[in-house]
């Protein structure tokens, strides 16, 4: 008897594989993760990973599709930018834990040049440049806006690396929000 998988079953299976892959890539990095390990955790045959994603590289690419709604942080006065950005950051860090595709990219960036390039390009397009435009439009001259945006970007990436990649505890969400908010605002204000 041949059992045919419905498209709904296939979509659910693909999602289960992606969920397992994100968690494992985020926790262990790219090199230590195996297709068999992900397949076992997802309760599927390794052949399905090849079928759906073309193998480990394709699965990694699918697992690292990232979306960050930073534009929400740019609605409002510059005097509250630190608080808005901190709220977005804290929500992401506490809300997505190990399944965060951005965390997957960060962890793999030391092992895979293409992951490092993907992370840099993503941050340039979705963080650094929108922040630069926002600061420039808030009345700061272009060079200074670019410098402040780069400082905020580097600060957030450094804190993320320290607290999420090196497994230092995130701490209390409210305290982290206050600290990030104050520091980001100082950088935004120059």
TrEMBL record:
One Pfam family in the UniProt entry: TetR_C_16
Origin species: Lentzea flava
UniProt cross-references to Gene3D superfamilies, sorted A to Z: Tetracycline Repressor, domain 2
Record InterPro entries: Homeodomain-like_sf, HTH-type_TetR-like_transc_reg, HTH_TetR, Tet_transcr_reg_TetR-rel_C_sf, TetR_C_16
Domain of life: Bacteria
UniProt cross-references to SUPFAM superfamilies, sorted A to Z: Homeodomain-like, Tetracyclin repressor-like, C-terminal domain
Keyword check for Transcription regulation: yes
DNA-binding region as annotated in the record: 34-53
Keywords assigned: DNA-binding, Transcription, Transcription regulation
Presence of the UniProt keyword Heme in the record: no
Name the record gives this protein: TetR family transcriptional regulator
Residue intervals of the HTH tetR-type domain: 11-71
